[in-house]
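Checked the freezer inventory, then went back to the computational side. Two predictions to log before the end of the day. The first one is the construct we discussed on Monday; recording sequence and tokens without edits.
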Amino acid sequence: MSICPKNKSSKARRDSRRANWKMTAPNLVKCSKCGELMMPHRVCKACGAYNKREIVAAE
């Protein structure tokens, strides 16, 4: 069985519901070791460090 609306939804109500469905810019923080911008709670791609410790060998 599918959804069967009782009344027609207006364009304003439909579009205002869709207004909050948007992409957001990724939140970036500075690496504590090298200062490069990176995603929080992830290993830095520039130096390979996480929480001031080297996790991955840097190229």
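The second is the one RB wanted added to the comparison set:
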Amino acid sequence: MPSAAGIIRDSIIEFSRLQNWMQSVKDKDPATYQSMHERYIELKVTLVSLGVNLTELDRIKD
């Protein structure tokens, strides 16, 4: 079973990568962006519930 630290680390990595991908498709493919945005919200809720401060990590801020 993964540790809490491992879950947090993996979620932060996914959150960061997802934001990079979102920024690259925002104006080119709105449907893909919207799909990614749903995952972005899920990750954001998860990280906040785990006590992660997203002030420095969140570049999308939607």
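For RB: The chain has two helices and no strands. The chain has a mean pLDDT of 94. Let me know if you want it refolded.
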